[in-house]
């Protein structure tokens, strides 16, 4: 499925974050229904090791709950309201788990699953985040349509060591505070793509990644001038909060002139 994505690839950051509550089925479905071919989401672990779709380490910002995700049982988290904080129209929107997302849209688009660093444990575990994510990908037959990314090299190295029949495509995330050389990790895990902070990217980096056979998808890009600048560098796509507007802009503007 990934090979069929039109270029430049437009990735919906946390779904359709500009118009819908982030990391919710409403946002994911809206993006896919509008023709967005790839969405990004974040995963962490609950206290009982359930794979929860949420960006923050805590529940406070995007739900009516409080406290750390890792300190709450999935049965508690799934009953929270993940929509009202964004707009009253989304009151009662539940926090999804990874299985629910795969069930709903797994066959309709490419999904970038970002493993949050706080979910990566020092010692590998049978029910660790890496094993569970790979397990759900295989269970739903999505090895060719899911890319797993992380800022944490340990998660990527663990996944890269999996046997080929359960090894997902991998992406390296990097930013201003990244304590490693992204190109070293890209090479060591045989990455499919690199997702850098767009503000730190230059044409030489893009060219270097391309020489390694790696796609470049910078985040989080919402401004037309930034999109134009990045496309002129030769990036393969962008990660954006408003994928529908960006797709429309790409179709209607002379963005490379």
TrEMBL record:
Name its GO BP terms in alphabetical order: lipid metabolic process
Q: Which residues belong to any copy of the GP-PDE domain?
A: 8-250
* PROSITE patterns in the record: GP_PDE
Q: Name one matching Pfam family.
A: GDPD
* Record GO terms (molecular function): phosphoric diester hydrolase activity
Which InterPro entries does this one have? Answer: GP_PDE_dom (IPR030395), PLC-like_Pdiesterase_TIM-brl (IPR017946)
Coiled coil ranges: none
Q: Which SUPFAM superfamilies match?
A: PLC-like phosphodiesterases
Indicate what this protein is called per its UniProt record: Glycerophosphodiester phosphodiesterase
Which species is this UniProt entry from?
A: Desulfatirhabdium butyrativorans
């Amino acid at each position: 499925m990934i090979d069929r994505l039109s270029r430049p690839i437009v990735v919906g950051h946390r779904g359709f974050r500009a118009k819908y509550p982030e990391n919710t089925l409403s946002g994911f479905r809206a993006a896919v229904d509008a023709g967005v071919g790839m969405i990004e989401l974040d995963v962490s672990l609950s206290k009982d090791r359930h794979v929860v779709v949420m960006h923050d380490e805590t529940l406070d910002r995007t739900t009516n709950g409080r406290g750390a995700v890792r300190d709450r049982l999935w049965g508690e988290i799934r009953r929270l309201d993940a929509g009202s904080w964004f707009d009253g129209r989304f009151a009662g929107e539940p926090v999804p788990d990874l299985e629910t997302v795969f069930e709903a849209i797994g066959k309709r688009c490419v999904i970038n699953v970002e493993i949050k660093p706080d979910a990566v444990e020092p010692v590998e575990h049978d029910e660790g985040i890496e094993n569970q994510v790979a397990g759900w990908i295989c269970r739903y037959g999505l090895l060719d349509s899911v890319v797993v990314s992380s800022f944490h090299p340990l998660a990527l190295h663990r996944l890269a060591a999996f046997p080929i029949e359960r090894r997902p495509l991998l992406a390296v995330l990097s930013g201003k505070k990244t304590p490693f050389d992204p190109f070293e990790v890209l090479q060591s895990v045989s990455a499919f793509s690199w997702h850098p902070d767009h503000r730190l990217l230059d044409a030489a980096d893009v060219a270097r990644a391309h020489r390694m056979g790696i796609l470049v998808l910078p985040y989080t890009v919402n401004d037309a001038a930034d999109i134009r600048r990045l496309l002129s560098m030769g990036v393969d796509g962008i990660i954006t909060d408003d994928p529908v507007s960006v797709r429309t802009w790409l179709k209607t503007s002379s963005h490379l002139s």
